[in-house]
Automatic annotation (TrEMBL):
Taxonomic placement: Bacteria, Thermotogati, Synergistota, Synergistia, Synergistales
Phosphoprotein as UniProt keyword: yes
Organism: Dethiosulfovibrio marinus
Sites bearing 4-aspartylphosphate, chain numbering: D55
InterPro entries in the record: Bact_response_regulator, CheY-like_superfamily, PAS, PAS-like_dom_sf, Sig_transdc_resp-reg_receiver
Protein name: Response regulator
Domain Response regulatory residue range list: 5-120
PROSITE patterns: PAS, RESPONSE_REGULATORY
Domain PAS: 395-460
Keywords annotated in UniProt: Phosphoprotein
Length: 501
C-alpha cells in the first residue's frame, strides 16, 4: 500500500524542513515545493500529492488562500492551512475556500496527524458522495435559502434530474418556483406543483422530512406520477430526491382493475393468492416457485386436465405437472428492461370452442396476465441473484489468491468472507466460520480482535495491533461513504496460539 503523499508549501525553509522530518517520522511521504514564489497549479499537480499543507502568506504578494481555492476547484486535492495568522479577517477569507483543516503555528505532532487523517477521510467521503450524486438513477436537487432574495434557490441538480426535467445547467441559481414552472409544471393543470412548493418550504422551516406525490394532469386526465422525498440537509439547505413512478402506478391500477374483474371467480382468486404467497416464499428456489405458479395457472381454468403451461427464460424451462403439449398456444414475453429474456406459454392439448380469446374466458386471460407479471419479477430476481453470486465468487477467488490470511466482517461483526490462509490460521473450516462473530471462535487471537473490530466498526478509523512482532491491520470497508464492515489482514500464516501486544 503506497504512503500518503504530503506537499509542503512554505516559504520559510527551516519550517518546511522541520515539517518534512516530522511527517516522515509519522510514516508519510513528504515533499517540499522547490520554488514557492513561482508556485502554480502545474507545479502542484506535478508532485501528484494526496494533501497540500499550505502557508497563507508566502512572500512577495503570493496569496496562499487564493491558490488553495484554485487547487480545491481545479485539482480536487485537499488543502490544510498551516499559518501563524489567526485574525478574524484571515480566518474568514480562508474559510471561503472550504479548507480541510486550519493549523496555527507552532503545530503539535498529534494535531498535525489527526488533521491530515480527517482531511483524507473527508475528501474520500466527499468523493463517494459526488459519485453517488452524479450516478444515482433518481433525481436529486439541492436548494439553498438566499437571504437577499428571501427564496429557496437551486444550488445543484444531478444529471438524472436534468434528464427527467429536460433542463440544462443554466437552471442552477434560479428560484425553486421558476425551475418547476419551466421544467415540471409548465403545462400541467391542478394544484400539484403548488403543493410540492409548499411541502419544500414547510420542511425547510420545520426540519421534519416529508414525502410528496405529484400527480400530472393535462386536459382533465392523469398521465403521470412522481414521488418526492424532501428533507432539510443543513440549516440553509433543503434536498429532495424524486423518481417517476408512472409505470408502477399504472401497473398497480391495472392489477386493481383486473382483481376487481375476477371477484366473481373464487378459483381464480385462490390461484392468484396462492401464486403471490409462493412468489414471496424465500425458502424455495425461483425455479420451484415458478413451477408452483405454473400448476396454479393450469388449475384455474374450466378444463384443467387438458391445460398445459410452459415458462422459459435463458437456459431454464419449467412446465406444469400435467403438461401434455399445446394445441391452442398463447404466449407472453418476459422482459428485463427492454431485453426479452423469456416467455410464458399456455394452451389446451386439444381443440376447444372459442370464448373471448380462443378457448379462454376474459377472466382467465386477465388472471394469466397478472401471473405473467409475478413470474417476470421472479425471473428478474433470479438473474440478479445469479449475478450477485458471480460477483461473490470473484471476490472469494481474489481472497484465496492472497498468501496472507484475510478475514471480512459485516456491519454487525459477523464473518462473511475469508480465504484459505485464514482457515489454516484459525484451524477451522470455512463453513464452520461463516456467519459467526469473532467472540464465538475458540481462539485467543479471535477473542482479542473482537473488541478492536467493534471499535473500527463504530468509529470508521483503521487500527493496527501487533502479533508475534508483526502488525495486524483492522480496516473499515465502505459502501457509498458509510462503514459497511471490517477487513482484517494478518502479515503471516501460522497457528493462533500467541498473545497480542
Amino acid at each position: 500500500m503506497s504512503k500518503t503523499k504530503i506537499l509542503i508549501v512554505e516559504d520559510e525553509i527551516i519550517i518546511a524542513m522541520d515539517l518534512r522530518a516530522r511527517l516522515e517520522r509519522m510514516g508519510y511521504e513528504a515533499v517540499e515545493l522547490s520554488d514557492v514564489l513561482d508556485i502554480s497549479l502545474g507545479s502542484v499537480a506535478s508532485h501528484d500529492p494526496d494533501v497540500v499543507l499550505m502557508d497563507i502568506r508566502l512572500g512577495e504578494g503570493v496569496d496562499g488562500i487564493s491558490l488553495a481555492g484554485e487547487i480545491r476547484r481545479d485539482l480536487d486535492i485537499p488543502v490544510i492551512f498551516v499559518t501563524a495568522h489567526s485574525d478574524s479577517l484571515t480566518l474568514d477569507r480562508a474559510g471561503r475556500t472550504d479548507p480541510y483543516g486550519y493549523l496555527i503555528k507552532p503545530v503539535k505532532d498529534r494535531e498535525l496527524q489527526v488533521t491530515i487523517s480527517m482531511a483524507m477521510h473527508k475528501h474520500h467521503t466527499e468523493g463517494q458522495l459526488h459519485k453517488l450524486f452524479h450516478n444515482i438513477p433518481n433525481g436529486v436537487m439541492v436548494l439553498r435559502y438566499d437571504e437577499s432574495a428571501h427564496d429557496l434557490i437551486v444550488e445543484s441538480v444531478n444529471p438524472a434530474a436534468m434528464k427527467m426535467d429536460r433542463v440544462e445547467e443554466d437552471m442552477v441559481g434560479r428560484p425553486l418556483s421558476a425551475y418547476l414552472m419551466r421544467s415540471v409544471c409548465y403545462d400541467l393543470e391542478g394544484s400539484g406543483c403548488f403543493g410540492l412548493v409548499e411541502t419544500v418550504y414547510r420542511v425547510w422551516k420545520t426540519g421534519v422530512s416529508e414525502p410528496y406525490t405529484l400527480t400530472s394532469i393535462r386536459d382533465d386526465s392523469i398521465f403521470g406520477w412522481r414521488e418526492y422525498f424532501v428533507y432539510r440537509s443543513s440549516k440553509d439547505e433543503v434536498t429532495f430526491v424524486f423518481q417517476d413512478v408512472t409505470e408502477r402506478k399504472r401497473l398497480e391500477e391495472t392489477l386493481k382493475l383486473r382483481a376487481s374483474d375476477m371477484m366473481y371467480s373464487i378459483e381464480h382468486l385462490e390461484a392468484l393468492r396462492a401464486s403471490l404467497d409462493v412468489a414471496l416464499e424465500s425458502d424455495l428456489s425461483v425455479a420451484q416457485r415458478i413451477s408452483y405458479i405454473a400448476d396454479f395457472m393450469a388449475k384455474a381454468v374450466s378444463d384443467p386436465d387438458r391445460m398445459s403451461v410452459r415458462i422459459v427464460w435463458e437456459d431454464k424451462e419449467v412446465r406444469n405437472s400435467g403438461f401434455q403439449g399445446m394445441r391452442w398456444l398463447f404466449s407472453r414475453p418476459l422482459f428485463r428492461g427492454r431485453r426479452k429474456i423469456g416467455s410464458v406459454e399456455w394452451g389446451y392439448s386439444e381443440e376447444r370452442a372459442d370464448l373471448f380469446e380462443g378457448p379462454f374466458s376474459r377472466e382467465e386471460i386477465d388472471l394469466f396476465e397478472s401471473l405473467v407479471q409475478v413470474i417476470s419479477h421472479l425471473v428478474e430476481d433470479s438473474l440478479r441473484e445469479r449475478e450477485l453470486r458471480g460477483r461473490i465468487g470473484i471476490l472469494q477467488d481474489v481472497l484465496d489468491s492472497f498468501n496472507v490470511p484475510v478475514l471480512c466482517l459485516d456491519r454487525v461483526g459477523r464473518i462473511v468472507h475469508l480465504n484459505g490462509s485464514m482457515e489454516e490460521l484459525l484451524d477451522m473450516g470455512r463453513e464452520e466460520l461463516l456467519s459467526l462473530s469473532l467472540d464465538r471462535i475458540p481462539s485467543d487471537i479471535a477473542r482479542k480482535l473482537s473488541p478492536v473490530s467493534a471499535r473500527v466498526l463504530e468509529s470508521g478509523v483503521a487500527e493496527r495491533i501487533h502479533w508475534e512482532e508483526s502488525p495486524v491491520e483492522i480496516r473499515p470497508t465502505l459502501n457509498m461513504g458509510l462503514v459497511s464492515g471490517v477487513m482484517i489482514l494478518f502479515p503471516v500464516s501460522g497457528r493462533c496460539c500467541n498473545d497480542i501486544s
